[in-house]
Amino acid sequence: MQLAAERIERLHALAQNAAREGDDDRAREYVRLARRLAERNRLTLPRAFRRFTCDACDAYLIPGRNARVRTRDGHVVVTCDCGSHARYPYE
Length: 91
What we know:
46% of the residues lie in helices and 19% in strands. By secondary structure, the chain is of the alpha+beta class. The protein has a 3-stranded antiparallel beta sheet with strand order 1-2-3, with no helix packed on it. Strand 1 and strand 2 form a beta hairpin. It is globular and about 40 Å long.
């Protein structure tokens, strides 16, 4: 379990770097690998990983480039380029 969690963290860092360099397909593949690894080992993905990935298309989200972030009353709405929305509460 510990090894899987470390690998998920490493895949998160790799996806972040690939997305920042503009290699969206490679970042998407890292996200898919991390999700599959978490499912196989029954692990919960870290909060930072869940917040910066699209559930619909597995894209690594970078606000301003491929994601729009808006604040509403009591929650943040993150919209991916694919059109899917994610809402997260805040105080």
